[in-house]
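Please annotate the following for my students:
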Amino acid sequence: MQTRIEKTPVSERALIGRINRKLADIDERLKKCTPGSRWSNELGEFYTVNVRYNCLLDRDVDLETLGHDLGVLRTSEELQ
């Protein structure tokens, strides 16, 4: 019989902080669009920018996937 492993919940705010600390090394930043703003349809809820060149890098970023890709969200953790 397999036992279910409980995943530790991580808040959105904590994950954004982890991601931004990791991205700061390469002059990037994760941004969150204000719901209902004129840009939310175009950029999605989260997007990344290069702060050195002030340019958009990626739109419609999935927070949990980016956290796993950067290694700041462990497999034993999940977005709350």
